[in-house]
Design goal:
The protein is of the alpha/beta class. Helices cover 42% and strands 10% of the residues. The protein has three domains: 6-47; 65-113; 135-306, Ribonuclease H-like superfamily/Ribonuclease H (Nucleotidyltransferase, domain 5), CATH 3.30.420.10. The chain has helices at 6-18, 23-30, 34-47, 65-77, 82-93, 99-108, 176-190, 209-213, 218-225, 242-254, 261-270, 285-291; strands spanning 135-142, 153-159, 165-171, 195-198, 229-232. A five-stranded mixed beta sheet has the order 3-2-1-4-5, with helices on both faces.
């Protein structure tokens, strides 16, 4: 037997109305029991409407006040996606709520919306360094829709293996000098990465005209002087530097929940579990940073100072 659809039910009623085919013929053509054909025809004659199919499965259960309170309370502490909240509620509070229900509750309270981009299947291959401090990512990002820094430029240095933000700065202009100043502060606090990945923006790379004719850029020269290998991303290929781009997406969507950008970065590094890390342990970037550090390297800081 096959499952009837709305289109097949309309066909059954149309053929019964014509009166050419018998009930047995219609049942054989649709591969259903004759009793089902009679049931559909009886409903149509009595109600004068085409019967509609019920959605399969149990009807959705309405969320309880306790569930709503737990979800909203946890979201205020961790303004993350429903998938993240599902794991936090289960692992830290012993509350099991499916992420689909969490997402519906967040939508009802205007705390979430459907992301069309996430519904598209992506073809990508994940790459990641094994150890912290082996590669940092950086790029400039112009802040939008935030009164505390709208129109200003944000630069951040992100550790590839741990997603840890080693340093950041807010400036009126995206310049080479500002990029170097933030990198210097980051190195003074956490040490020097082996490599640094950037795009081919003019702040990082001598990429056109007379500037290139005179040799490497000031930023590239700085990396040569302190012995950091410079890796350039492909032109018009932001996926190469995708980790820092993803951080900026998180920044723009979550910063409104914090009183300052500094508070957001602290939350991102030390509070927010990252799905690309040890998800079973709800690992944060700072935890992954120390877990993945190559112990053969001497770090110019103490762990206790970062807690």
């Amino acid at each position: 037997m096959v499952k009837l659809t709305a289109r097949k039910i309309k066909w059954i009623i149309r053929e019964k109305t014509k009166g050419i085919l018998s009930t047995n013929d219609i049942a054989l053509l649709q591969n259903v029991d004759e009793s089902r054909i009679r049931q559909i025809w009886c409903h149509y004659k009595n109600a004068k409407t085409i019967p509609t199919l019920r959605r399969p499965g149990r009807p959705p259960r309405l969320p309880t006040n306790e569930e709503i309170s737990a979800i909203i309370g946890t979201y205020k502490e961790y303004p993350c996606s429903a998938v993240v909240l599902e794991t936090i509620l289960n692992n830290r509070h012993g509350i099991k709520i499916p992420h689909n229900r969490i997402h519906r509750i967040l939508k009802d309270h205007k705390l979430a919306s459907n992301d069309i981009n996430k519904q598209r299947r992506r073809k990508w291959v994940k790459y990641e360094r094994n150890h912290s401090m082996s590669l940092w990512h950086t790029d400039w990002y112009q802040i939008k829709d935030d009164d505390r820094g709208k129109g200003k430029w944000l630069i951040a240095y992100l550790d590839d293996a741990s997603r840890f933000i080693a340093g950041y700065g807010i400036f009126d202009e995206a310049t080479t000098e500002n990029a170097i100043s933030v990198l210097e502060r980051s190195i003074n606090r956490y040490g020097k990465p082996l490599e640094l990945l950037t795009d081919q923006g003019s702040q990082f790379y001598a990429n056109f005209g007379e500037i290139k004719a005179f040799g490497i850029s000031k930023f590239q020269q700085y990396l040569v002087d302190i012995k950091i290998n410079h890796i350039l991303g492909r032109v018009q290929h932001p996926q190469t530097n995708g980790k820092i781009e993803r951080f900026y997406e998180t920044f723009q969507s979550k910063v409104e929940h914090f009183s300052s950008i500094e508070e957001f970065v602290t939350w991102y590094n030390t509070k927010r579990p990252h799905m690309s890390l040890n998800w079973d342990e709800l690992e944060t970037p700072i935890q992954a940073f120390f877990r993945k550090i190559d112990r053969r390297r001497r770090l110019p800081y103490m762990i206790d100072n970062l807690r």
